[in-house]
Design goal:
Number of helices: 9
Structural class: alpha/beta
Strand order of the largest sheet: 6-7-8-3-9-10
Helix content: 25-40%
CATH class of one domain: Alpha Beta
Radius of gyration: 17 Å
Order of helices and strands: EEEHEEHEHHHHEHEHEEH
Low-confidence stretches: none
CATH architecture of one domain: 3-Layer(aba) Sandwich
Number of strands: 10
Mean pLDDT: 93
Bound molecules: adenosine-5'-triphosphate, magnesium ion
């Protein structure tokens, strides 16, 4: 049995008095890719933000490699090896591609990723390295956001809406590159709107509905009908 790298136990998350997650227990094992699916507002981003230290008010446990990371700051969590490619990329718009990548590299962890290995993976970024990131296409911005996360040499990488808003050809290329991004020994959590893609890419899937886990299981074993029911609540 592989080691558990990340686990939440009955996680609750709040924005002020509004509760966005209810008793969410999710496990991620070493080398595993899990997908989180669910309708708009289901709580997918809130979950991703909770485990990366970006939600102020959470209850119950978040453990990373057997130790609690609850209450740690985002930069402390990143130092431990959890990196996120956030929804909407969240690059620094006026900074160049290279400056954005270097910001990811400020989390000094050992590993294969540095500027030249990121540029080898995404040659487009090399060509655009001195251009402000807001002048890049959506696909290039997503590559820059992935590159920035990789620059911290994470053990766990989280993708919030990995393909949303991108052209089909770009989506294809990002998925083709995923095995190089999620290297041996790494684990990943992918939030993906396209359910077929989510099932194809992941070992296991969790479906959130209104802040609660409505369904989870092995991606290959869940039926369409079970998923539709968990997704839409009908
Ligand atoms: N900053 C915020 N302040 C208050 N409520 C928020 C905030 N961000 C999200 N919410 C609410 O929390 C709930 C979960 O939102 P979240 O963004 O996690 O959903 P999601 O599954 O990522 O949705 P989407 O598919 O639209 O990205 C929603 O009801 C949303 O309106
Ligand atoms: Mg979201």
């Amino acid at each position: 049995m592989p080691n558990k790298v990340l686990e939440t136990k009955n996680l609750n998350a709040y924005y002020g008095d509004f509760q966005a997650l209810f008793e969410v227990s999710i496990d991620l094992f070493e080398g595993e890719i899990i997908a989180i699916i669910g309708a708009n507002g289901a709580g997918k981003s809130t979950f991703m933000r909770s485990v990366t230290g970006l939600i102020d008010r959470i209850d119950n446990e978040i453990n990373y490699k057997g130790l609690s990371i609850k209450g740690l700051r985002a930069d402390e969590i990143a130092k431990k090896g959890l990196a996120m490619v956030p929804e909407g990329r969240k690059l620094f718009p006026s900074l160049s591609v290279e400056e954005n990548l270097l910001i990811g590299g400020q989390i000094k962890r050992l590993g294969p990723w540095k500027l030249n290995t990121v540029y080898e993976l995404f040659p487009d970024l090399y060509d655009k390295r001195n251009i402000p990131s807001n002048l890049l296409s959506g696909g290039q911005q997503q590559m820059a956001a992935i590159g920035r996360a990789l620059m911290s040499n994470p053990d766990v990488i989280l993708f919030d809406e990995i393909s949303l808003g991108l052209a089909p050809i770009i989506i294809k290329s990002i998925y083709q590159n995923l095995p190089k991004v999620i290297q041996k020994g790494m684990s990943a959590i992918i939030v993906e709107q396209d359910i077929s893609k989510a099932l194809e890419i992941s070992d296991r899937v969790y479906c959130l509905q209104e802040g609660r886990i409505a369904l989870f299981g092995e991606s290959k074993q869940l039926t369409r009908q079970e998923i539709s029911k968990a997704y839409f609540g009908i």
